[in-house]
């Protein structure tokens, strides 16, 4: 499942990520869920005529209605199982921005179904906790507590230069060591103030929580490194959890990305044009897919309680 961003739709995610080609090259099925709630962006600018823009209810982000998007995701998987020849032990979730937030929620609440998750530019955000009113009114969405029955391998990719979902979270908009608002103007200032009121956790906080949930130590090893991307893998189980753990990998990109992305982008080079891509090295669709191929549910039945057994074997055609 490849889940779209706030103010986007299924076709937009299909075009942005280019995952159809990855699926064709590697012989798997990719589906693009579409949100139900109309996106509330807090801007007076209307959507282009005839272009539906939606959001997913990912807890603290990004819906103003308590839509049962987890129920929808479960029904979508049931439909795929009933109508296509798929391997029920190799079902994966990924998504961009709001879709990244939603991917985290799927990992939290569908650990009986999915085998691994890869959020991009979206953190684990269970509830809006600031005392001030939410600037976009998203507090009507239902909160949740991330307590997965099983450990879910996580690959989180985030651009250090992201000024839509800041790497340092909402609290770090003006304090972060990365200048997100160079030559700031009135619109940027308004946007920064809005971001501070969103209550987004930092990437580090999100990863720390997943390490605890997945029973792995906070000592990681660098598995990918180049001029603008570093990936750190946390895969050593804590004491007593050798049979009940799953890895967490964080890929940090440091790139301005393609023009217009404000660092909020999908990893990898652009094959056709440069819109929406981070223009970083090594970490791309193939990297995400290779991460997925290392993991399966290892025989866990739906709604079962068996722990995740570590890494599965590589997929073979």
TrEMBL record:
Top-rank EC class of the record's enzyme: hydrolase
Listed SUPFAM superfamilies: alpha/beta-Hydrolases
Keywords from the named record: Hydrolase, Signal
GO biological process, alphabetically ordered: proteolysis
Keyword Protein biosynthesis listed: no
This enzyme's EC code(s): 3.1.-.-
PANTHER family for this protein: BLL1128 PROTEIN (PTHR43037:SF1), UNNAMED PRODUCT-RELATED (PTHR43037)
Identification of the protein by name: Esterase, PHB depolymerase family
Lineage, top ranks: Eukaryota, Sar, Stramenopiles, Ochrophyta, Bacillariophyta
